[in-house]
Amino acid sequence: MAKISSERLRLMFVQNGVLFALIALIILFAALNPRFLSINNIQTIVLQIAELGLIALPVAFLIMQANVDLSVGSVATLSAVVGGLAMVGSGSVFVGIAVGILAGAAAGLLNGALISLAGLNSFVVTLGFMSAWSGLALFLTNGKTITGLPAEFTALGSFAPGGIRIQIILLVLALVIAWYVLNHTTRGREILAVGGNLRASQLMGLKVHNIRVSTYVVTGAVAGFVGILLAAKLGAVSPIVGQGMELSALTVVLLGGVAFEGGSGRIRSVLYGLAFVGVLKNGLVIMGISAYIQTILVGLTLVLAVALDRGIQQAVAKSIASSARRRARRLDNSAAAE
User: Fold this and answer.
1) What pLDDT does residue 2 have?
2) Could you give the C-alpha distances from 116 to 122, 192, 203, in angstroms and in order?
3) Predicted pLDDT at 245
4) How crowded is the C-beta side of 249, counted as CA atoms within 13 Å?
5) What is the dihedral angle through the alpha carbons of 14, 66, 244, 248, rounded to the nearest 10 degrees?
6) CA–CA dist 53, 57 (Å, integer)
7) Confidence band for 1, pLDDT divided at 50, 70 and 90
8) CA distances from 206 to 66, 109, 216, 326 (A)
9) Burial classification of residue 288, based on how many CB atoms lie within 10 Å of its CB (0-12 exposed, 13-18 middle, 19 or more buried)
10) How is 155-169 classified by DSSP, letter by letter?
11) What is the C-alpha separation between 125 and 111, in angstroms, rounded?
């Protein structure tokens, strides 16, 4: 019995390791600087991770179905550029937002078609588009920031109904929707099934191509929306506004325990990973750590996330194997008794 409890305890610790690490990080930064736990700083942390969280959630669904998208940061940038140009040209906020989101959805559709329908590797395809979309954004703007956006659009970036910034409200809504889809809808179960065993899903009659492509389309549309949201907050469109978001999103998702091989994941744990990244970046800023050192530490966090993902899979596999052996022994004992 003690052995069984020990195995379960180890599995629980591994699966929730990022939560324990988050608590330890909060205690550390709070001890180093009392201002860290102030209401204003907590609000700052949440506001800083809002857009990253919006992108990380659909990326999590992609990884759950054993795919990846390394182009989301570039898609956010290109969507902001295209939307900004449309907005300045037409003078219409609605047109600019719609064009930006549609551009993101189109990029997602292209990813999905090449990966699911053409059978290309998701890592290679999205890595290629990460460079392509980034280059296109620079080409369209000639490397310059787009200014002159309508005042009503830039006002959206600081819109705060009830004193809560719109970015935070959107993040909370996205977390609730993602949790509901994953745990209480057929599509959520289908995504996990496709990631767990693609061939079995096909034999079960699931519309695998539809599931995979639609997830990429949603991911692209959300990335496009995030690009627009960042432009509204900044009051201008930088041709590098989404740079690096893909790696940060991947770090969040892997820290959150979403299996890179697909087939498993929890939205709650993705939230823990998001909070960890936000707390780490904010704490380093408060401590006055160099931006260069911050970049190094965030990169090392990605390595930690991959190691954690590996550890979770090994612990789960060991636990399953151990449970199977115990069941086999019980059956053997029952047969011998008869």
Assistant:
1) 47
2) 9, 16, 16
3) 92
4) 31
5) -20
6) 6
7) very low
8) 16, 19, 17, 34
9) exposed
10) HHTT--GGGS-HHHH
11) 7
Domain spans of the chain? 2-322
Q: Under 8 Å CB-to-CB from 220, ≥6 apart: which residues? A: 72, 75, 104, 105, 106, 107, 108, 109, 111
Residue type, 295: T
Residues 6 or more apart in contact with residue 153 via CB below 8 angstroms: 87, 93, 96, 97, 231, 232
- The conformation of residue 142, written as its DSSP 8-state character, comes to T
Q: Which of 47-56, 151-160, 281-290 has the highest mean pLDDT?
A: 47-56
Token pair belonging to 20: 């324990």
Burial of 318 by CB count in 10 Å (0-12 exposed, 13-18 middle, 19+ buried)?
middle
Cα–Cα distance, 118 to 120 (Å, whole number):
6
The owner of tokens 């990973």 is 273
Tokens at 88, concatenated = 């300045």
Q: What is the mean pLDDT of the chain?
A: 87
Residue 79: both structure tokens together: 């969507």
* Joined tokens for residue 3: 């052995």
Q: Is the pLDDT of residue 290 over 90?
A: no
- Burial classification of residue 143, based on how many CB atoms lie within 10 Å of its CB (0-12 exposed, 13-18 middle, 19 or more buried): exposed
Q: Are 106 and 98 in contact (CB under 8 A)?
A: no
Q: What letter represents residue 149's amino acid? A: L
Output the pTM of the full model. Answer: 0.86
Q: Which CATH number fits domain 2-322: 1.10.3470, 1.10.150, 3.40.50, 1.20.1740?
A: 1.10.3470
Q: How many residues does the structure list for the chain?
A: 338
